[in-house]
Design goal:
Distance between the termini: 38 Å
Shape: globular
Radius of gyration: 22 Å
């Protein structure tokens, strides 16, 4: 959203995404029962991301864009003999996809200005060696009982949001819930997917808010303590600028991966690799 420069640009982008989605829904599914449901409902989920880095003006275009998509779907479906879509829009968690345009994910604030971002990878993946060669910290996944899962590793990357990004620690849980409410009202007819970061002292206010607002303004909610949650190797961990810079200096960005590093084995020759 923060990269969209005008209402017309948003409508144009959403229309192109709609057409791609609509025709994808016409492809056959493997299971006849699934195929019947997909063709009948024509359900899709065009999502936005970077909502909390967008201006009030940019967010104000969402309602018009949704109405445009609804009317376009009626005309386009009639023209091509498709069923009208029962749902069109959503807000995905968008944790990975949002890295491409460099924005905060979905409806979320930035977790922290400087942080460690962790991902889990199968221990036998070629990408583990690539990460090790570039200096990124790698360790086995720690189970709740203190043992290690030798089949999976955690890789830690330094991560920073641009200065001025709205951060979770600067928003109350109710602030975040109001953002979700706005997007559910003006944009998403599917669920707005978002994790609300909260502090323990906010729980009474959260309960009062949900008693008043949940049934009419939200479809699904999840909550996570911003800090002190007790999870080891959490996906995000706030760190100091110094710690961020130290890890940044000790690593080399992965800018390209040679095809040889990911050459397919014979057991994947059919295009489907075995589940391990």
């Amino acid at each position: 959203m923060p990269n969209i420069t005008s209402r017309d640009e948003l409508l144009d982008a959403a229309t192109l995404l709609y057409r791609f989605n609509k025709h994808s829904l016409q492809l056959s599914s493997h299971q006849p029962e699934t195929d019947e449901v997909v063709k009948r409902n024509q359900r899709m989920g065009i999502s936005i991301t970077g909502a909390l880095q967008a201006s009030k003006e940019q967010l104000s275009w969402l309602s018009d864009c949704y109405e445009h998509l609804r009317e376009f779907d009626k005309r386009y479906s009639l023209l091509h003999g498709f069923n009208v879509s029962i749902k069109l829009t959503t807000v995905q968690p968008s944790g990975t996809l949002s890295l491409l345009p460099g924005v905060a994910p979905g409806a979320h604030p930035g977790y922290a200005r400087f942080m460690y971002r962790r991902i889990r990878i199968a221990s036998d993946s070629n990408f583990v060696l690539v990460c090790r060669q570039h200096g990124y910290p790698i360790e086995f996944v720690k189970n709740f009982d203190g043992t290690e899962d030798k089949g999976t590793v955690v890789v830690t990357f330094p991560f920073a949001y641009p200065e001025g990004t709205r951060l979770a620690k600067d928003m109350t849980a109710l602030d975040q819930l109001e953002v979700m409410k706005y997007l559910q009202t003006h944009w998403s007819d599917n669920a707005v997917s978002c994790t609300i970061y909260y502090k323990k002292e906010e729980l009474p206010g959260i309960k009062a808010y949900l008693a008043k607002n949940y049934s009419k303004n939200h479809k699904t909610l999840s909550f996570l303590l911003h800090s002190g949650h007790g999870f080891q190797q959490a996906p995000f961990e706030e760190v100091s600028e110094e710690a961020y810079n130290n890890l940044l200096a000790a690593t080399t960005p992965i800018t390209a991966i040679s095809s040889a590093e990911f050459e397919s084995s014979d057991e994947c020759a059919s295009g489907v690799c075995p589940v391990r």
